[in-house]
Design a protein that fits this description.
Shape: globular
Number of strands: 12
Structural class: alpha/beta
Distance between the termini: 23 Å
CATH architecture: Alpha-Beta Barrel
Number of helices: 9
CATH topology: TIM Barrel
CATH superfamily: Aldolase class I
Largest sheet: 12 strands, mixed
Strand order of the largest sheet: 7-8-9-6-5-4-3-2-1-10-11-12
């Protein structure tokens, strides 16, 4: 459907849990988070009903997120139900890959079309520093299993953090030299834990182009500008929500694992969908999508107005 600014909103990012088996520094406080109770989380049946209502409002693509969605009990059933929803033509899932050896084949059979892998470092020490968990080898093994299961167009997402992993930009891009993967480098956003971080932590997409001038632009893919290395098999995606935001063409809304619809990631606006059913649920979603804000204010130097950490919103 079209929002009030005539943007085609067809993409829903649906969180199924706030829990995660990592503790990334830009996502969660070091002391951990107050986990929601089981009864506060959308049930499988509620998720199915929301997916049907979303499809009735013109949503055709659903990305399942968390936290880490693979720690959610019944995640394969959730994926299968969404994939079988009339009107939903694409189901994707974002994961840190640690549990993919257990789930990759099941997700493929359930109808998941594509995986996005969150991988901020290829260095064990740096990975530990960012995630606070020594699990790089497990994540890399999960990626191998996913490729073997037939997920041959993986997107690997790395959030750039100045002074932490920016020295690995070339190493991350080398993954596209011999593999048919899309490595996407994402500008850090001033939200939650990193809202007050020093400006030096924020690495722009343009600095990547300065560092790697041999990158050749080949098009766009949603929110990312696509490039290739000479003789590369895969692609490089640069996502710039701060330095060159994509609000005018934004095509998505988010629903948190406790049933809150966020028309914009960085807005304080939240619409509670729990307890709504049938036409009432559809109308609430329709109005929220139509009223989606024109843009965020992060490019004006402001921090995100979102009142939640990313694990509680959904990546």
């Amino acid at each position: 459907m079209r929002d009030g600014f005539d943007r085609n909103i067809y993409y829903l990012r649906l969180s199924v849990t706030d829990k995660c088996n990592l503790r990334c520094v830009y996502c969660m406080p070091e002391s951990g988070v107050t986990k929601l109770k089981h009864e506060d989380i959308l049930s499988v049946e509620e998720i199915s009903e929301i997916a049907r209502a979303a499809a009735a409002c013109g949503i055709t693509k659903v990305r399942i997120t968390g936290g880490e969605p693979l720690v959610r009990r019944g995640i394969v059933d959730i994926c299968e139900r969404i994939a079988q929803t009339d009107g939903i033509s694409e189901v994707c899932l974002t994961t840190n890959a640690i549990l993919l050896p257990q789930f990759a084949s099941k997700l493929k059979s359930a109808g998941v079309n594509r995986l996005n892998i969150s991988l901020d470092s290829l260095n064990r020490q740096t990975y530990n520093e960012i995630t606070r968990v020594d699990a790089l080898s497990e994540a890399l093994a999960g990626i191998d299993v996913a490729l073997g299961a037939g997920f041959d167009a993986l997107k690997i997402n790395a959030v750039l953090i100045g002074g932490v992993n920016d020295s690995e930009i070339l190493d991350l891009l080398e993954l596209t030299r011999t593999n048919n993967v899309n490595v996407r480098l994402i500008e850090l956003m001033p939200i939650g834990e990193c809202a007050e971080w020093a400006e030096s932590r924020f690495i722009s997409a343009s600095s990547v182009l300065s560092l790697v001038p041999e990158l050749r632009e080949v098009g766009t893919d949603g929110v990312s500008k696509l490039y290739t290395l000479p003789d590369g098999h895969g692609t490089v995606g640069l996502i710039s929500p701060i330095s060159s935001h994509f609000c005018p063409t934004c095509n998505r809304v988010r629903i948190t694992c406790d049933g809150i619809l966020k028309p914009c990631l960085h807005s304080k606006d939240e619409i509670n969908l729990r307890g709504l059913h049938g036409e009432e649920l559809e109308q609430a979603m329709y109005k929220a999508i139509y009223d989606k804000p024109l843009k965020h204010e992060l490019d004006n130097g402001e921090a995100s107005a979102a009142a939640r950490n990313m694990n509680a919103i959904g990546g």
